[in-house]
Amino acid sequence: MDVLQVDIEYAGYDEKSDAIHDIRFSVGSGELVGLIGPNGVGKSTALKAILGLLPRCSGKVLFSGNRQTYSYIPERPILYDKLTLWEHLELAGAAYEMEQRVFTVKAEALLYRFRMEGVRHHYPWSFSKGMQQKMMLILGFLIEPDVYVVDEPFIGLDPRATKEFLELLEEERKRGAGVLMSTHVLDTAEKICDRFVLMDSGKMVAEGSLQEIQDSCGLPDASLFDCFHRLTA
């Protein structure tokens, strides 16, 4: 069952130009789809279009899971200087109308998992970039949505936090959540993604499993890196 269906004709930040066009794919329950490409090709713009955050967008986006909910983990942390880490979690829990008992158990477990329990009452402006990124992961995993939309999650994460993040994603996929993750780290994407949407210059250049992409560019057994460069050369 698809939990996310995307059919974007065009989208952009103003009326003068469209940053992306002809973006069409789906994400199934329990599936991890990688939105792949180097910086500047439109991956983050595509995610913002999917989430309805752009002023100009033509097309249809359907969240079709059981609860039709999603968590968005942005590339750049979005934080409030006057709220502590725990107050951020409480605000998110209230916004999602989580029961207090459920919220406390979940929040405590995530803080422990990402080794942030000792700074729960600290302000995020005092955190390193990596700690701020872990904070966004904690906020993203606080609820159990149908879909995770994750933008360049590996930037700033240390190896231990990356491992915890990937393990949590796997647990959520087993629950049935779909994941759409943008990244330019192709070697990691190749290892963890079920399917790929390759982008270049604001448009899709290929979509499918690694084998399907290898077949489309005539490079059997090639890496995702080599396939991408063949398709965009």
Could you outline the blueprint of secondary structure elements for this entry?
Blueprint: E1 2-12, E2 20-28, E3 32-36, H1 43-50, E4 56-63, E5 70-73, H2 85-95, H3 100-113, H4 129-140, E6 147-151, H5 159-175, E7 178-183, H6 186-192, E8 195-200, E9 203-208, H7 210-217, H8 224-232
Parallel strand pairs: 3-7, 3-8, 5-6, 6-7
Antiparallel strand pairs: 1-2, 1-4, 8-9
Helix pairs in contact: 7-8
Question: What do you see in this structure?
Answer:
- This protein is α/β, with parallel strands linked by helices and 233 residues long.
- The chain has 2 domains: 1-69 and 145-233, Rossmann fold (3-Layer(aba) Sandwich), CATH 3.40.50; 77-144, no CATH class.
- The chain has helices spanning 43-50, 85-95, 100-113, 129-140, 159-175, 186-192, 210-217, 224-232; strands at residues 2-12, 20-28, 32-36, 56-63, 70-73, 147-151, 178-183, 195-200, 203-208.
- The strands form 2 sheets. It has a 6-stranded mixed beta sheet with strand order 5-6-7-3-8-9, sandwiched between helices. A 3-stranded antiparallel beta sheet has the order 2-1-4, with helices on one face.
Put the structure in a nutshell.
Helix content is 37%, strand content 26%.
